[in-house]
Amino acid sequence: MELHLIIEGRRGLAEQVYRQISQAIQSGRLAHGQQLPPSRLLAEQLGISRKPVEEAYRRLGYERLVLGQAGRGSFVNAPAAQAGKPPSPALLAANAALAAWREYDNPLRKVVDEARARYDFIGGSPAAQHFPEDDWRRAVNAALRAERVHRSRYADSAGLPELRRTIASHAAYSRGVAGDPSRVIVTNGAQQALDLLARVLLEPGACVAVEDPCYPAARQLFRSHRARVAPVPVDAEGIVVERIPEDARLVYVTPAHQFPLGMAMSEARKRQLLDHAARSGAVIIEDDYDSEFRYEGRPADSLQGMDRDGVVVFVGTLSKVLMPELRIGYMVAPEALAEPLAIARNLSDWHGPTLIQHAAARFMEDGSLLRHIRKLGAVYAARREALLAGFAGPLAPWFETVPASAGFHITALARRELDMPQLIRLARRMDVGLYSLEKFYAGAAAQQGLVMGYGAIDTLDIPPALERVRAVLQQMDS
């Protein structure tokens, strides 16, 4: 990599080199410990003789801005940052737009940067220690071989054909989703699928109905597209269809495992919702984020599998099964939406990394995904039982759980008024990570409770963690 210096004229060459390197160090453009190119190489890059560069290096070394290490080279020795008045920000024409984006912030975004507690009940994080590294490594090696054929070429914006085929087969097998591979669009996580749907289907001021409570990042994403977001309450059967505005262009739901409460939408409510969409012309987004894991009862039909009018988009993800860092999401769209969504994907970022897509296709084709789901299902079942036992026993005076038969989190509702911020703060001091239900609500009727994910905590750690929570609650009562 070349060091960016600009030489003007043929005079004062050593001074020019010294001044520019010194300014780069003082400003932080050259970081502390960064290696400078050898004097001979830098002279060749600048088209000057070596002597001015050596003279500049000697002066920088004398001032301790550069330190030479025998046999290794010259390294930046940046001084401690000088406290000074920061430059005044420019008055940008887009300042109002920037301020609006700050209002769209998602409360879950900050959780990513927080250090995990020893006993952490964060939701949405799969069991990292059970990731099938050997199977994935074999899939990546196969992907590297496949990439040789298509290297230096752009790919289909909707995703590699082999991955779309395996996704269509997997969704049909596990969730009863109907649709051929031509209607599958691979995305960078489910979040990009939601963004593409908003880009294609919404204009400023269009109405989007969302469950309340719901996934905050979805609600804020629709708001960022200047949509009018209408929170719709849920009951024990799912979204209350009668409360959906008649002019809603989109309806966002999580029918298999309502996020974050956890109950499943009843068959009757699903049919009512489908009838509403067919009558009003709304598109339903079915976010099926973690229903691969089921513990009791028979599998319920997906909304998309029940759809006879082409109004449901099925959105799925492999992030909750494998790991979030892979960013593999997908949607199965009605025929009328498939091409516009592929065009929007093309304009947005053309396509995702093909190496990951090749690997994911191989991982699914050879049965590794289904084996991993079965293994994790047994792990999560044990953790779920431990959590339910704790809330039915030591924590029963304070909480009751919402019935849920899928996913890898449960929600516990407070039986009486609690100071939830204090509970979360005191539990954190005891190295237990708890997460409040209230931040998932948009309306005023937020229920008090805890969203208890069990992907990131071991089964044997759950009882002692809940005992610490009980101790905190007793302390608060006293």
Explain this structure to me?
The protein is of the alpha/beta class and 478 residues long. The protein has 3 domains: 64 residues, Winged helix-like DNA-binding domain superfamily/Winged helix DNA-binding domain (Arc Repressor Mutant, subunit A, Orthogonal Bundle); 125 residues, Aspartate Aminotransferase, domain 1; 236 residues, Type I PLP-dependent aspartate aminotransferase-like (Major domain) (Aspartate Aminotransferase, domain 2, 3-Layer(aba) Sandwich), CATH 3.40.640.10. The protein contains 15 helices and 16 strands. Strand 10, helix 10 and strand 11 form a beta-alpha-beta unit. The protein is globular. It starts with 12 loop residues before the first helix and ends with a helix. The model has no long low-confidence stretch (mean pLDDT 91).
For the biggest sheet, the summary is: 8 strands, mixed
Whole-number tally of structural domains: 3
The span between the termini is 64 Å
* CATH fold topology of the largest domain: Aspartate Aminotransferase, domain 2
Q: Name the beta content range.
A: 5-15%
CATH superfamily of the largest domain: Type I PLP-dependent aspartate aminotransferase-like (Major domain)
Radius of gyration: 28 Å
Q: Can you count the helices?
A: 15
- Poorly predicted spans: none
Order of the strands making up the biggest sheet: 5-12-11-10-9-6-7-8
Question: CATH architecture of the largest domain, please?
Answer: 3-Layer(aba) Sandwich
Quaternary structure annotation = single chain
CATH class of the largest domain: Alpha Beta
Structural shape? globular
